């Protein structure tokens, strides 16, 4: 070759600093020469096709030292630049160097490859101006673009203007490693590749890895012959790695690929974001074209700055999206924490969750049940999907935008759920939150049909041959949804962690509360057992003490019933007012109205408003019950003239003075025998409440004085006097004053699950003239009786163990049968709408109260 040619025919290897035979290494492009230097001593081995450049024949170089090839000044410069290498994968470049000190200018690039230092030397290209100013101008124009799409377009425009290539494309990789031309600048008349897609096989994995190591790749002339590397191994016995060399030749398969496109020269520049190959700038020229090293370095720097700019834009978009998602996430978490969090309760927050992760349908699969909103598969399909996720999810979020490809049964519901994002929210059994996206049918335009590639057998075995056609080939894609973005996956992972943490804390709190509830239940059972025993003891004492004063069995039953009813009314007053203290006047009027409702107006209560504590209710109820009973039998309320005045006052010591004063009735004499009723009046308040009691049997009427200690009552601050009649009094008045209606000859129905109460009510109804009384312990038995028998009136217990008597309302109404409810729930029972206005009496009920209620409902229906 002549000294002025730029062709490179071979690479020589001078091993050893003294003398070593020439060896051949490598294959390079014919646009410069290459030196291979040992790292044992900086310039020890030289591999280069420098015969033409040094003006010596190859034979003349055999056995010559390095100094015979390069001047000492050049060696010294190279030594210094090697010290500046930032890393083994970063070449150091030197521009406009007089390598041979003969006024010929070269550009030099050097890097480390294994145990060798590779030095590439190219003839200096024409001046390109100030590369720094050029890059600054290019980047300034790029950064003015407001959107990413405009930024992409400005990048390819700038690159084409600077390099002079016929076509410059920005080629972006997708998640499946296929490529998409997102921007293009091309000269007129050569067609357009904009928006075309390229399959992943067009750029094999090893090529993508190389693009990460060496961001720039140049092919000056695809038809130029490569220079073979001989021998195949370097002196250390390993192939020379030329991955970072700009002069290295390329795969013949890639050259064939370019020839099929009609390309004469090309250059690829990597766009690397977050350490990954985001895309490429692909530059094509339809004639051979050589770019100088300095211009290529400027283009590489431009691509690096563009990568940072795109990365910044993407990070900003991602940050804004993540901030919005985080705000929605925090709002959702605050709502669920304020509720009763559980796996199935997540369905109540479907709108919030769909705002965090965009979807067409949302399902919470918990405890084998699906709660859905939006477009979703059916329950059976979701059950199948949950089983699939149990195998595929492995306690992590699972995302697929082509669900039917991995779960074939999903083909049946691809319209509703082509893609799924699953978040596990429990361990065993596995529960999920499922976000579904429907199918998006789209048309993808490929650069030629990828299926036209064929396998051929060559010296290296079977391989795919490049496509010969790059005409646009369109493919319609079915069965896919919009892909789940990285933001979606991050939001899903954040939800998974937060929900599991909330549920874990909730379960821990639930266990703690259950433990406390168990303790409270045990205490309640113990307290209830104690109270029941006390009540039973009290009832036993009432029964035992009432017997001596009774003249007959009926009188004995009436006395016991009255006293038990007094205790029950006191209990009702406590529960009616949510266990809050009520007025002393209410206790008096309740007993008066319950026993002598038609004479309630003859009892006057005056004084400051006093409310009695719950602990004193039973005692005062029994005392006033006995006072009312005795007055109705022997005192002022036994005829039509007498009256009773009850006055209250609070003394300076905070005690309450109560005076019961009878007047206008028959003459009163002190009893000759002390009965149980008198004992209750005289001794209950001192014994149970720590107060005082005094009875004065005057001729004009009984005067009873009581003193209650301050802890048994509370004085209302307004000082208002009380003149009131309680609800029980009103009800009693209504029932007592109602015209009597005979029960003779009627047929009744009792629905009661307690046999003793049922027998008692049955006997009571028969004793009051009923001809027949049917009893039933369940709704089913009662419905059969109503269907088969003639019923005139019914008595319905609200609570029948596991059911209520409310289903009987409809058949009774249909037959016009009146009915009375009996309840142990007090006034808190809620009757059905069909039974509005129906009478309800409370357990335990008095005989006259029950009969009066039955007569009233019969009267209303007559």
How would you state the average pLDDT, rounded? 76
Radius of gyration in whole Å, from Cα? 51 Å
- Please report the total strand number as a whole number: 36
Q: Write the CATH fold name of the domain at 547-734.
A: Heat Shock Protein 90
Description:
The structure is a single chain. Among the domains are: 12-123, Beta-Lactamase (2-Layer Sandwich), CATH 3.30.450; 330-440 and 478-502, Beta-Lactamase (2-Layer Sandwich); 443-475, no CATH class; 547-734, Heat Shock Protein 90; 738-861, 3-Layer(aba) Sandwich (Rossmann fold), CATH 3.40.50.2300. With 862 residues, it is an alpha+beta fold. It has 21 helices and 36 strands. The protein starts with 11 loop residues before the first strand and ends with a helix. Residues 1-28, 40-53, 57-63, 457-464 and 719-739 have low confidence and may be disordered. A hairpin with a 2-residue loop joins strand 5 and strand 6. The radius of gyration is 51 Å and the shape is elongated. The chain has a 6-stranded antiparallel β-sheet.
